[in-house]
Design goal:
Blueprint: H1 37-45, E1 51-55, H2 62-73, E2 79-83, H3 91-105, H4 107-112, H5 123-136, E3 141-146, H6 154-166, E4 171-177, H7 185-190, E5 194-197, H8 199-202, H9 206-216, H10 223-233, H11 237-247, H12 253-258, H13 264-277, H14 281-290, H15 298-305, H16 310-320, E6 324-326, E7 334-336, H17 338-351, H18 356-369, H19 373-382, H20 386-402, H21 406-414, H22 418-423, H23 425-437, H24 441-454, H25 469-479, H26 485-498, H27 506-519, H28 523-540, H29 543-560, H30 563-579, H31 587-599, H32 603-620, H33 623-639, H34 643-658, H35 666-676, H36 689-698, H37 704-711, H38 715-729, H39 734-743
Parallel strand pairs: 1-4, 1-5, 2-3, 3-4
Antiparallel strand pairs: 6-7
Helix pairs in contact: 1-2, 5-6, 9-10, 11-13, 15-16, 15-18, 18-19, 19-20, 20-21, 20-23, 23-24, 23-25, 25-26, 26-27, 27-28, 27-29, 28-29, 29-30, 29-31, 30-31, 31-32, 31-33, 32-33, 33-34, 33-35, 34-35, 36-38, 37-38, 38-39
């Protein structure tokens, strides 16, 4: 279910919502770069492999090598590029960037996979199958994921592992990483589907070092000095380049080379001091203080340094320092090479430890004022400005949950100290919502209890738009109903009392009340609330809840026997879903579409879609929805006379319903279907399928003549069915027939 509206992009520079375009630009091959033909040729061999891994420590030249290989490879096939950062631990963020990278280099992928699809449903079940199918239609595509070691979360790694297993043979995934990727490399190696380059492969030979130090940088070192540097650095590319930066200003280069120690750690310590001290004070201050930033532009750097003119200094530094990496075509955004940034931060901590928090606070203010929310939250947390970070999280969290970015919000909450999180009711509410909508029942109940223990339920309004703490808490309970329809309905109605109809949360209130009425058997009320909720959701751009509301209305129309209305509503829901890339992510839409196809007699198609819907509903861990979908699947299986599978589905539905403390009308439906399992063709006194359809329509407001038009039957035929229904049920009126049917679970 959707729970927030689109608030616009929170990243810079501008691009499609949720994208940081600088991550999609491969580094340019610069004048200092040494062409390493032997390694480029090795990488070219990987075109026949499912996976290529370039794994080596920081500063080994992985990024430079991959950029050079990509530059040579793009003349033969499309090659996408993504530079990973910590935000990519959220699978939604990661796959948005991957898909956009592929869409930019391979237009057919753009036509097959929309960015709206990512964030509209579970990644592995919804997004990746469509991407794999799109790639399977291409003759050859490659994707480079640089700094893959930064993908540390289980959810993100699992999605990539699935992708590696299912990607077509014409696709090559290339990873640049400091650590071994968590995939079954041995199996890939045994099948000849893995190409590996390791640290030993990336070490500079004497000739390559000479090409860098003398050929590219013009240091005029002797052969012996070059061999000494190669030996002392063990061919480590970053060490050689650091040495070159230091040697450029040395008057006696031979003596300087001789001062090198034997260990890499000593080399780093020695060269860091030498390199930094070789810069003028203004440039040194810029490098040290900007090291707290993941990426930066002139304006951000000016704000952090509390000076002006950083843009010009950055442009000049980029021309002379290989460790400052341009991130776009305009020379506006930059980052430091990760190893160099680590060294700068260590040195900043040694020289000015008291300045670090202040630098982060200035970065927080700049990002907050420029609308780049995620960076603002990051820097506020790094600065220890927990109140400011909490205010931002409490304001924007719904937008992230609305696009399935649970991992991002969980990561924010995890960075608050326990003492802060436990006392901040806004953050506890966010935690309760997040746990509830992600299906983590036990933890959600604990978080809700923590909110209630703090008291002050009447306080408000809240930054996210709720009128009060109690309103948010009530709706949180209502949208994660678990297995208690009665409790859900009470919470939904309480939220309806507390929220104004003009509230941004009103569409979700309507959805929650409609859901409770639906499972409470109040179909007229449910249809009205779902109708208002779908309309409000559509106007607010809440596509997921708009689609769900229309889908439930279609199910209600089908249960009433209003076949034409059932069709109209499900087609409208499907049209909206397809337009916004969520047609394969709504379990409720799948259930409604399956019901309509079943009504049309397309049972095989209906069953396939029902199974997809059930798989999506299971992830939400809402037992009542699952039981409803299983019971509807059961009717399809019986129409196909698949008795064994029908028995299994019936058993599962019963187990799910029995696990609920209050399953609403579902136990009665289960009883009716269970009884039906023990009879074949209708016997005397039992309603036929057509009579059951007419009976469902009698529960609505249509006249017998209108029912005939809906079912394409004559009025006389419908009247005959009605008389037969009255006789078999032992009643004398329409109202009595409907009441009898509800009591016996026929409706």
């Amino acid at each position: 279910m959707a729970v927030a509206s689109e608030l616009g992009s929170d990243r810079a520079p501008t691009g499609p919502p949720g994208l940081l375009l600088t991550k999609l630009y491969p580094p340019e091959t610069r004048d200092h770069t040494v062409q390493r033909a032997r390694l480029v040729d090795r990488l070219r061999e990987g075109a026949r492999c499912r996976l290529t891994v370039v794994a080596a420590p920081a500063g080994s030249g992985k990024t430079t090598l991959l950029a050079a290989w990509r530059e040579a490879e793009v003349t033969r096939r499309p090659v996408g590029w993504v530079s990973l950062d910590d935000d990519d631990n959220d699978p939604v963020v990661f796959w948005r960037h991957v898909i956009e990278a592929l869409r930019r280099v391979c237009p057919p992928v753009r036509e097959s996979v929309s960015l709206e699809l990512v964030g509209a449903g579970p990644v592995i079940e919804v997004v990746l199958p469509r991407l794999v199918n799109a790639l399977a239609e291409q003759e050859g595509v490659a994707l480079i994921l640089d700094d893959f070691q930064r993908l540390s979360s289980g959810a993100g790694r699992d999605s990539v592992a699935w992708f590696v297993d299912h990607a077509p043979p014409t696709f090559q995934l290339v990873l640049g990483t400091r650590v071994e990727p968590p995939f079954p490399l041995a199996a890939l190696r045994a099948r000849g589907e893995l190409l590996e380059l390791r640290a030993d492969d990336l070490r500079f030979s004497r000739d390559e070092a000479d090409a860098l130090l003398n050929g590219r940088l013009g240091l005029e070192l002797s052969r012996d000095d070059v061999e000494t540097l190669v030996g002392r650095t063990e061919g480590w590319p970053a060490g050689l380049y650091l040495a070159a930066l230091s040697l450029a200003g040395a008057s006696d280069r031979h003596t300087y080379v001789g001062r090198f120690g034997a260990s890499s750690r000593h080399v780093v310590d020695f060269l860091t001091e030498e390199v930094l001290d070789a810069n003028d004070p203004v440039t040194l201050e810029l490098m040290l203080k900007c090291s707290v930033l993941e990426r930066f532009c002139g304006g951000l750097s000016d704000a952090v340094l509390e000076q002006e003119g950083a843009a010009g200094r950055l442009a000049g530094l980029a021309r002379t320092n290989l460790f400052l990496v341009p991130l776009d075509d305009t020379g506006e955004w930059y980052r430091f090479h990760h190893l160099f940034a680590e060294l700068l931060r260590m040195e900043l901590g040694r020289r000015e430890p008291e300045a670090v928090a202040a630098l982060h606070r200035r970065a927080y203010v700049w990002h907050r004022d420029h609308g780049t929310v995620e960076e603002a939250i990051h820097h506020a947390l790094e600065a220890g400005a927990f109140a400011e970070a909490a205010e931002l999280v409490a304001t924007v969290w719904m937008r992230y949950v609305n696009t399935y970015r649970f991992a991002t919000v969980f990561a924010w909450l995890a960075r608050f100290p326990d003492a802060v999180l436990g006392r901040d009711q806004r953050l506890l509410l966010v935690k309760a919502w997040l746990l509830g909508v992600s299906g983590r029942r036990v933890e959600a109940v604990e978080a809700i209890a923590a909110v209630e223990e703090l008291g002050g339920l009447g306080e408000g309004p809240l930054p996210d738009g709720f009128s009060s703490v109690e309103a948010s808490l009530s709706l949180a309970k209502a949208v994660a109903p678990w297995g208690d329809v009665g409790a859900q309905r009470a919470a939904a109605w309480r939220a309806e009392e507390l929220e104004e109809s003009g509230s941004p949360m009103w569409p979700i209130v309507c959805w929650a009340v409609g859901w409770g009425c639906y499972y409470g058997g109040e179909l007229d009320e449910s249809d009205r609330w779902f109708g208002e909720g779908a309309d409000r959701s559509f106007r607010a751009g809440l596509w997921t809840s708009a689609v769900a509301g229309l889908a439930y209305r279609s199910l209600i129309a089908g249960d009433r026997g209003q076949v034409e209305e059932q069709r109209r509503l499900v087609e409208e829901a499907e049209e909206i879903a397809r337009a916004h890339g969520i047609d394969e992510s709504s379990g409720t839409l799948c259930t409604a579409l399956s019901a309509w196809l079943g009504e049309c007699g397309k049972i095989d198609d209906a069953l396939a879609i029902a199974e997809r819907g059930i798989a999506l509903i299971r992830r939400r861990n809402v037992q009542v929805d699952l039981a409803d979908a299983l019971l509807r699947k059961l009717t399809l299986l019986r129409r196909l006379e698949q008795r064994e599978e029908a028995t299994a589905v019936l058993a599962e539905a019963r187990a799910v319903i029995e696990s609920c403390s209050d399953a609403g009308v579902l136990p009665a439906r289960l009883t009716a279907l269970d009884h039906k399992a023990h009879r074949g063709a209708p016997r005397d006194g039992e309603l036929s399928e057509r009579e059951l359809t007419v009976l469902r329509m009698l529960s609505g407001s249509l006249s017998e003549r209108d029912i005939g038009r809906e079912l394409y039957l004559s009025h006389n035929t419908v009247h005959s069915h009605v008389r037969s229904i009255y006789r078999k049920l032992g009643v004398f009126s329409r109202a009595e027939a409907v009441a009898h049917a509800r009591r016996d679970g026929l409706l």
